[in-house]
Backbone:
């Protein structure tokens, strides 16, 4: 059975090309495309707006090759490019791509003897003029001639639908300029910049002059011999280059097709609190401790939030900083279960374990340890309250997915206040008597933050709907901050002090989804909650605030920032957790003890020491 070239491409997924619009015709030029392991197809799948093929004329046929010595049997322009493009054009309803908004330019780089090559080319496309004649058909594939081209005054000798690749140093007449499709030049003619960082200001001015001149002529500009890297693409784009030259069209497409998830701009920063620092780091017992966990929040996430808030965060005002190593007992990378269990119990454990050691034995957590000394505790999450991080502070199960069992463990916990979503695991638990059992233990069950804020004392179980903990970008509001403030108002009445774990759960969600706007907006929400904790610490004088993470998520890399605009551009290396150290910020009595580099489970013992409990 014969399978057409178009069928092969559509079988590889291009039928959904219309869904991909971020990479458009003004972004990608597949340079020396014939050197790809699959000529045309790789660039076509990547929806390049421009594809280049070098040609030689041999024995009446046009062969695709960079050097004459590379010419091989069967590698003709007709076979590799013209015929497949004609077939694809017809399959796409007389458009280059399935998405009718996408255009295509085929650049024929003539290596020698244009006088013979051009008539041969015109002959080879003569049977399908509608595919390549943009004068008669605006949806046609644009043919642009580069390399060994006619002199500008000879352009008029060739059909008007044939365009030419211009050069910035040629002074074209207005008539000749109409035949120029774009202006191209070797980047090395203007700079030794290797794609890392930025060109020097002097070189940048040279480049800008070339770009601006092309734009003044109404033409797009392309540089060849550019490095293939996100930084290079960003710098060229920022300078105004129209075509991004690439030998890796698939990578360029991947970069541009997700820009809505990899770029974020926050035009108006929120105000940041300046702490008093009166009790910061003093050698004094902490009566209260607020442990704030930004789930998935690594150094890059914090810096992204810093840049997006125009160079300032509440977290960045904290002066005592350490680093925690996050590996699990059974793996280099931790999940939230093992990471939170290390923080909550002081024991490294296996991934997926909740409140249990690697020896499969239950470990006493901070909540229960502190209760025995009179300290009352709260656990708050802006997500599922049976999820791994909050669960590690009140439950003991061998697998984080055991939601019903985790919820049931609350019956044995000494936690005073529990706030988060996932009503199902409590109200529809396998133990139908769970809620009545919790009420018998003294818990007031609240179904919303409004109900919770009406309570002024006693044990509180706050189970909100899942929609209440939706993303902050979708209207959640300052739910986390208000939950913390009201928990403080209740627990601060305890004469022996309090402990509150507050989780910014959805920074992690953004990391797993490789979604920078979610990461930053969730981090900003978390940072505003940190502000409320620091403000209370200043007013109270006996409260230690600790800000850290269970792990980093996404392998976030910042590619470009403009803090004056609140703009951040980034990339992710994974959709999972990484092994990178996470920061530990501390503010208040005993904060200096959190400096240095140490294992994450040591935070448990540092918290115990901060209370001066034996």
Residues:
């Amino acid at each position: 059975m014969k399978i057409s070239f178009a069928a092969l491409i559509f079988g590889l997924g291009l039928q959904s090309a219309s869904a991909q619009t971020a990479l458009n015709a003004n972004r990608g030029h597949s340079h020396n495309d014939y050197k790809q392991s699959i000529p045309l197809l790789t660039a076509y799948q990547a929806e390049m707006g421009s594809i280049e093929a070098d040609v030689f004329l041999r024995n009446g046929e046009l062969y695709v090759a960079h050097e004459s010595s590379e010419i091989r049997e069967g590698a003709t322009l007709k076979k590799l490019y013209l015929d497949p493009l004609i077939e694809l054009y017809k399959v796409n309803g007389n458009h280059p791509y399935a998405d009718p908004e996408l255009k295509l330019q085929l650049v024929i780089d003539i290596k020698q003897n244009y006088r013979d090559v051009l008539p041969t080319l015109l002959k080879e496309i003569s049977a399908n003029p509608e595919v390549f004649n943009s004068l008669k058909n605006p949806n046609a594939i644009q043919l642009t001639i580069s390399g060994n081209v006619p002199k500008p005054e000879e352009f008029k000798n060739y059909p008007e639908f044939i365009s030419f690749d211009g050069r910035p140093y040629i002074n074209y007449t207005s008539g000749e300029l109409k035949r120029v499709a774009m202006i191209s030049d070797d980047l090395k003619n203007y700079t030794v910049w290797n794609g890392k960082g930025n060109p020097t200001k002097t070189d940048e001015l040279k480049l800008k002059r070339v770009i601006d001149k092309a734009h003044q002529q109404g033409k797009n500009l392309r540089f060849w011999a550019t490095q293939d890297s996100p930084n290079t693409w960003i710098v060229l784009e920022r300078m105004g280059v129209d075509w991004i030259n690439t030998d890796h069209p698939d990578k360029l497409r991947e970069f541009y097709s997700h820009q809505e998830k990899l770029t974020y701009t926050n035009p108006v920063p929120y105000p940041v609190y300046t702490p008093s620092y009166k009790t910061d780091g003093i050698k004094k017992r902490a009566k209260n401790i607020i442990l704030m966990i930004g789930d998935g929040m690594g150094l890059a996430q914090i810096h992204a939030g810093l840049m997006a808030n125009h160079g300032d965060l509440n977290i960045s005002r904290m002066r005592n900083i350490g680093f925690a190593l996050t590996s699990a007992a059974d793996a280099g990378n931790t999940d939230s279960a093992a990471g939170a269990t290390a923080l909550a119990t002081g024991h490294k454990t296996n991934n997926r374990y909740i409140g249990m050691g690697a020896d499969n034995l239950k470990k006493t957590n901070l909540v229960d340890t502190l209760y025995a000394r009179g300290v009352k505790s709260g656990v708050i999450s802006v997500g599922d309250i049976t999820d791994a991080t909050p669960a590690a502070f009140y439950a003991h199960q061998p697998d984080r997915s055991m939601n019903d069992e985790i919820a049931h463990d609350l019956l044995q916990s000494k936690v005073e206040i529990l706030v988060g979503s996932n009503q199902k695991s409590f109200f529809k638990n396998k133990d139908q008597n769970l809620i009545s059992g919790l009420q018998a233990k003294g818990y007031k069950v609240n179904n919303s933050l409004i109900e919770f804020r009406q309570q002024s004392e006693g044990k509180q179980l706050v189970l909100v709907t899942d929609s209440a903990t939706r993303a902050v970008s979708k209207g959640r509001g300052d739910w986390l901050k208000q939950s913390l403030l009201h928990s403080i108002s209740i627990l601060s009445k305890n004469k022996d002090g309090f402990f509150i774990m507050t989780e910014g759960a959805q920074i992690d969600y953004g990391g797993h989804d490789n979604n920078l706007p979610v990461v930053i907006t969730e981090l900003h929400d978390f940072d505003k909650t940190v502000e409320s904790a620091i403000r209370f610490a200043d007013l109270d004088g006996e409260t230690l605030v600790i800000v850290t993470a269970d792990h980093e998520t996404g392998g976030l890399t910042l590619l470009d920032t403009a803090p004056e605009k609140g703009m951040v551009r980034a990339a992710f290396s994974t959709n999972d957790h990484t092994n990178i150290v996470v920061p530990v910020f501390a503010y208040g009595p005993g904060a200096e003890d959190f400096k240095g580099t140490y294992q994450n489970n040591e935070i448990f013992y540092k918290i115990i020491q901060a209370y001066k409990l034996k």
In short: The chain has 22 helices and 24 strands. The longest helix spans residues 516-540. Confidence is low (pLDDT under 50) at residues 12-25. The radius of gyration is 31 Å.
